[in-house]
Amino acid sequence: MSPYHFARVFKRSTGVSPHRFVVQRRIARAGAFLATRELSIAQIAPLVGFRTPSHFTAVFRRVTGVTPKGYRTEHGLEDRVAASPA
């Protein structure tokens, strides 16, 4: 199966392109890590497949409409992270 054919079939069955699907899965996983409050944003970025925290932040904001720090703040998680040792 060619890459083009795979992408077409994948989008037809899931409604999104393979790349968008992977990005959505990474962001969903990042949300779970952000909710654990144990890891910093810089530590989460490579765990979910981003090379730099800034790229992770930009993609997270584009997909969710809020930055990772904003996500933690909105969910009342930021204070607990800041209090934990580095």
What does this structure look like?
Helix content is 73%, strand content 0%. It has six helices and no strands.
Structure summary:
It contains six helices and no strands. The protein is mainly alpha-helical.
The H-and-E topology, N to C, reads as HHHHHH
Strand element count: 0
Beta-strand content: under 5%
Mean pLDDT: 89
Distance, first to last CA: 47 Å
Shape: elongated
Biggest beta sheet summary: none
Rg, rounded, reads 15 Å
Question: Any chance you could write out the topology, listing elements then pairs?
Answer:
Elements: H1 3-14, H2 18-36, H3 41-47, H4 53-64, H5 68-74, H6 78-83
Name its key features.
single chain, 86 residues, mainly alpha, 73% helix
